[in-house]
Amino acid sequence: MFTGIVRERGRVVVAERNGDGMRLRISAPETAAGTGIGDSVSVAGCCLTAVAVDARELAFDAVAETLSRTNLADLEAGAEVNLEPALRAGDPLGGHYVQGHVDGVARVRAHARGGDGSRLWLDVPEELLRYCVEKGSLAVDGVSLTVAEVDEGGVAIALVPHTLEATTLGALEPGGEVNVEVDVLAKYVERLAGPGGVRSGQ
After folding, report:
1. Least crowded by CB within 10 Å, which of 25, 97, 112, 152?
2. What are the helix (H) ranges across the chain?
Protein backbone atom coordinates (compact mmCIF):
# COMPACT_ATOMS: atom_id res chain seq x y z
CA MET A 1 0.00 0.00 0.00
CA PHE A 2 1.18 3.52 -0.87
CA THR A 3 -0.01 7.09 -0.45
CA GLY A 4 0.99 8.65 -3.76
CA ILE A 5 3.50 10.96 -2.08
CA VAL A 6 6.71 10.64 -4.08
CA ARG A 7 9.82 10.35 -1.90
CA GLU A 8 12.51 10.41 -4.59
CA ARG A 9 13.04 10.69 -8.31
CA GLY A 10 15.15 7.77 -9.40
CA ARG A 11 17.13 7.46 -12.61
CA VAL A 12 17.01 4.30 -14.72
CA VAL A 13 20.46 2.79 -15.13
CA VAL A 14 19.42 -0.37 -16.97
CA ALA A 15 16.15 -1.31 -18.66
CA GLU A 16 16.85 -4.72 -20.15
CA ARG A 17 14.24 -6.95 -21.74
CA ASN A 18 14.41 -10.56 -20.60
CA GLY A 19 12.02 -12.72 -22.58
CA ASP A 20 8.53 -11.35 -21.91
CA GLY A 21 9.72 -9.36 -18.91
CA MET A 22 12.20 -6.64 -18.06
CA ARG A 23 14.95 -6.12 -15.49
CA LEU A 24 15.10 -2.55 -14.20
CA ARG A 25 18.03 -1.13 -12.28
CA ILE A 26 17.41 2.28 -10.80
CA SER A 27 19.77 4.72 -9.11
CA ALA A 28 18.01 6.06 -6.00
CA PRO A 29 20.29 6.43 -2.95
CA GLU A 30 17.61 7.65 -0.54
CA THR A 31 15.15 4.86 -1.38
CA ALA A 32 17.86 2.20 -1.53
CA ALA A 33 19.01 3.10 1.99
CA GLY A 34 15.66 2.09 3.47
CA THR A 35 14.82 -0.85 1.21
CA GLY A 36 15.58 -4.54 1.64
CA ILE A 37 15.32 -7.41 -0.82
CA GLY A 38 11.68 -8.41 -1.08
CA ASP A 39 10.33 -4.98 -0.15
CA SER A 40 7.71 -3.28 -2.30
CA VAL A 41 8.44 0.03 -4.00
CA SER A 42 6.16 2.09 -6.22
CA VAL A 43 8.00 2.75 -9.49
CA ALA A 44 6.10 5.27 -11.63
CA GLY A 45 2.99 4.14 -9.79
CA CYS A 46 3.59 0.41 -10.26
CA CYS A 47 4.21 -1.79 -7.23
CA LEU A 48 7.41 -3.76 -7.82
CA THR A 49 9.47 -6.04 -5.58
CA ALA A 50 13.12 -5.22 -4.98
CA VAL A 51 15.23 -8.19 -6.09
CA ALA A 52 18.65 -6.58 -5.47
CA VAL A 53 19.73 -3.58 -3.41
CA ASP A 54 23.02 -1.84 -2.75
CA ALA A 55 23.97 1.53 -1.30
CA ARG A 56 22.79 3.52 -4.31
CA GLU A 57 20.73 1.28 -6.59
CA LEU A 58 17.72 -1.03 -6.62
CA ALA A 59 16.79 -3.73 -9.12
CA PHE A 60 13.31 -4.95 -10.04
CA ASP A 61 11.82 -7.54 -12.39
CA ALA A 62 8.73 -6.42 -14.30
CA VAL A 63 6.74 -9.35 -15.73
CA ALA A 64 4.72 -9.44 -18.96
CA GLU A 65 1.42 -8.57 -17.23
CA THR A 66 2.99 -5.47 -15.72
CA LEU A 67 4.50 -4.36 -19.03
CA SER A 68 1.19 -4.82 -20.84
CA ARG A 69 -0.72 -2.57 -18.43
CA THR A 70 1.83 0.18 -17.81
CA ASN A 71 4.33 2.44 -19.54
CA LEU A 72 7.33 0.65 -18.00
CA ALA A 73 8.08 -1.15 -21.26
CA ASP A 74 9.03 2.22 -22.78
CA LEU A 75 11.62 3.05 -20.11
CA GLU A 76 15.19 3.53 -21.25
CA ALA A 77 18.46 4.22 -19.45
CA GLY A 78 18.54 7.83 -18.27
CA ALA A 79 14.80 8.15 -17.75
CA GLU A 80 13.53 9.45 -14.41
CA VAL A 81 10.83 7.66 -12.42
CA ASN A 82 8.83 8.55 -9.32
CA LEU A 83 9.59 6.33 -6.33
CA GLU A 84 7.74 5.69 -3.08
CA PRO A 85 8.50 2.97 -0.52
CA ALA A 86 5.53 1.00 0.80
CA LEU A 87 3.52 2.60 3.60
CA ARG A 88 4.61 1.44 7.06
CA ALA A 89 2.49 1.31 10.21
CA GLY A 90 2.46 4.75 11.79
CA ASP A 91 3.47 6.62 8.61
CA PRO A 92 1.37 9.72 7.84
CA LEU A 93 -1.19 9.33 5.07
CA GLY A 94 -0.56 12.49 3.10
CA GLY A 95 -2.16 11.51 -0.19
CA HIS A 96 -4.77 8.77 -0.68
CA TYR A 97 -4.71 4.99 -0.55
CA VAL A 98 -2.81 3.79 -3.63
CA GLN A 99 -2.34 0.08 -4.28
CA GLY A 100 0.34 0.33 -6.94
CA HIS A 101 -1.91 -1.73 -9.23
CA VAL A 102 -1.94 0.38 -12.39
CA ASP A 103 -5.32 0.31 -14.13
CA GLY A 104 -4.12 1.59 -17.49
CA VAL A 105 -2.24 4.22 -19.44
CA ALA A 106 -3.49 7.74 -20.16
CA ARG A 107 -2.15 10.09 -22.81
CA VAL A 108 -1.21 13.72 -22.20
CA ARG A 109 -3.59 15.96 -24.15
CA ALA A 110 -2.12 19.28 -23.01
CA HIS A 111 0.16 20.69 -20.34
CA ALA A 112 -0.12 24.46 -19.90
CA ARG A 113 2.00 26.47 -17.48
CA GLY A 114 0.33 29.28 -15.58
CA GLY A 115 2.12 31.26 -12.90
CA ASP A 116 4.11 28.88 -10.69
CA GLY A 117 1.89 25.88 -11.43
CA SER A 118 0.40 24.17 -14.45
CA ARG A 119 -2.78 22.54 -15.72
CA LEU A 120 -2.44 19.00 -17.03
CA TRP A 121 -5.09 17.43 -19.28
CA LEU A 122 -5.08 13.64 -19.68
CA ASP A 123 -7.07 11.56 -22.13
CA VAL A 124 -8.19 8.62 -20.00
CA PRO A 125 -9.40 5.27 -21.41
CA GLU A 126 -13.22 5.10 -21.44
CA GLU A 127 -13.34 2.11 -19.12
CA LEU A 128 -11.45 4.11 -16.47
CA LEU A 129 -12.95 7.55 -17.01
CA ARG A 130 -16.21 6.50 -15.33
CA TYR A 131 -14.30 6.27 -12.04
CA CYS A 132 -13.01 9.84 -12.31
CA VAL A 133 -15.00 12.59 -10.61
CA GLU A 134 -14.35 16.25 -9.92
CA LYS A 135 -12.41 16.63 -6.64
CA GLY A 136 -11.81 12.87 -6.60
CA SER A 137 -8.41 11.22 -6.30
CA LEU A 138 -6.30 9.85 -9.15
CA ALA A 139 -2.75 8.47 -9.07
CA VAL A 140 -0.67 9.55 -12.09
CA ASP A 141 2.73 7.88 -12.44
CA GLY A 142 2.50 7.22 -8.72
CA VAL A 143 1.57 10.77 -7.71
CA SER A 144 -1.59 11.35 -5.67
CA LEU A 145 -3.56 14.09 -7.43
CA THR A 146 -6.99 15.72 -7.25
CA VAL A 147 -9.15 15.86 -10.38
CA ALA A 148 -10.07 19.49 -11.15
CA GLU A 149 -12.34 18.90 -14.14
CA VAL A 150 -13.80 16.05 -16.18
CA ASP A 151 -14.95 16.12 -19.81
CA GLU A 152 -16.10 13.44 -22.23
CA GLY A 153 -12.57 12.23 -22.92
CA GLY A 154 -10.44 12.87 -19.88
CA VAL A 155 -9.53 14.89 -16.84
CA ALA A 156 -7.76 18.10 -15.94
CA ILE A 157 -5.43 18.31 -12.95
CA ALA A 158 -3.88 21.41 -11.40
CA LEU A 159 -0.22 20.83 -10.52
CA VAL A 160 1.32 22.94 -7.76
CA PRO A 161 4.98 24.06 -7.84
CA HIS A 162 6.13 21.38 -5.38
CA THR A 163 4.68 18.60 -7.53
CA LEU A 164 6.34 20.03 -10.64
CA GLU A 165 9.71 20.12 -8.87
CA ALA A 166 9.59 16.91 -6.83
CA THR A 167 8.15 14.53 -9.45
CA THR A 168 8.51 13.69 -13.12
CA LEU A 169 5.18 15.33 -13.99
CA GLY A 170 6.76 18.71 -14.67
CA ALA A 171 8.45 17.31 -17.77
CA LEU A 172 5.29 15.86 -19.33
CA GLU A 173 4.57 16.91 -22.91
CA PRO A 174 1.51 16.36 -25.15
CA GLY A 175 1.49 12.83 -26.53
CA GLY A 176 3.34 11.38 -23.55
CA GLU A 177 1.89 8.43 -21.65
CA VAL A 178 1.40 8.06 -17.90
CA ASN A 179 0.29 5.25 -15.62
CA VAL A 180 -3.04 5.86 -13.92
CA GLU A 181 -4.68 4.15 -10.96
CA VAL A 182 -8.23 5.15 -10.11
CA ASP A 183 -9.53 5.28 -6.55
CA VAL A 184 -10.18 1.69 -5.49
CA LEU A 185 -13.20 2.84 -3.45
CA ALA A 186 -14.99 3.79 -6.67
CA LYS A 187 -14.53 0.28 -8.03
CA TYR A 188 -15.88 -1.31 -4.86
CA VAL A 189 -18.93 0.98 -4.91
CA GLU A 190 -19.62 0.05 -8.53
CA ARG A 191 -19.34 -3.62 -7.70
CA LEU A 192 -21.61 -3.42 -4.68
CA ALA A 193 -24.21 -1.29 -6.46
CA GLY A 194 -24.30 -3.47 -9.58
CA PRO A 195 -25.98 -6.80 -10.30
CA GLY A 196 -25.07 -9.36 -7.67
CA GLY A 197 -23.96 -6.67 -5.22
CA VAL A 198 -25.41 -5.93 -1.81
CA ARG A 199 -28.90 -7.39 -1.46
CA SER A 200 -31.72 -5.85 0.47
CA GLY A 201 -31.84 -7.11 4.05
CA GLN A 202 -28.21 -8.20 4.15
Report:
1. 152
2. 29-33, 64-69, 126-129, 161-166, 184-193
